[in-house]
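To whoever is on call:

I kicked off a structure prediction for a single chain this morning and the downstream step that reads the tokens threw a length-mismatch warning. I double-checked the sequence; it's 240 residues and nothing unusual in it as far as I can see. Pasting both halves so you can look.
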Amino acid sequence: MKYTLEVIAFNIESCLIAESAGAHRIELCDNPSDGGTTPSFGFIKEARKNTSIQLYPIIRPRGGDFHYSNDEFEIMKSDVQVCKTLGCDGVVIGLLNNNGTVDKERVKELVAIAYPMGVTFHRAFDRTIDAFQALEDIIDSGCERILTSGLRPNALEGADTIALLIEKANNRIDIMPGSGIRSNNIIEVLQKTTATSFHSSARILKNSSMKNINTEMKEEMKSILLDETEVKKIITALST
């Protein structure tokens, strides 16, 4: 069985680590404290220039919920076009109506703008009112993949629901478990869900390279970095 590993990159160094460690796809994001928002034009451009594996920037104009105004949707449409212009392989989106259903018409519009790029529907899915109706709506909208933790805080807790989603999907769309996946639990998630693609942040904190630190500011100045060792461990676990 061939497995796919997607990892998150919040900076260009993490992109380089993702490729060298053997990951198959990068979800490119900014603002980890918000759960990921759209990366800048310059970041996307440099990530594409410096990597050859699949690159999927998230299209999310702000943190918080996934119910967007007309102005925010216009931003999202423009950002999808930017990703296509810069040579990305796909984008990651997620839009909901305020009643917890998938904003199907807007998702379809973004999929059409993105073509021929691929489109992943992200963990907005885990905030839907009915996961199985959302599954059908997303399939009908033309997305190729759903990133989900099974409507639970992490994929291991939601493994039973993920397994049902994979069964219901019946190869019509890829169901990709994500959230809390590490090398020490990925095989358990695999066995419980039968998934063939996985998403991991595999993050560590990197110390500042500054020689001068103003201790009066009472801050550590650490940044999030992809853990190369952890990515390699996940790849090894999936290969054995």
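Update from on-call: the warning came from a stale cache, not from the record. Cleared it. Sanity check on the structure: The chain has a mean pLDDT of 97.
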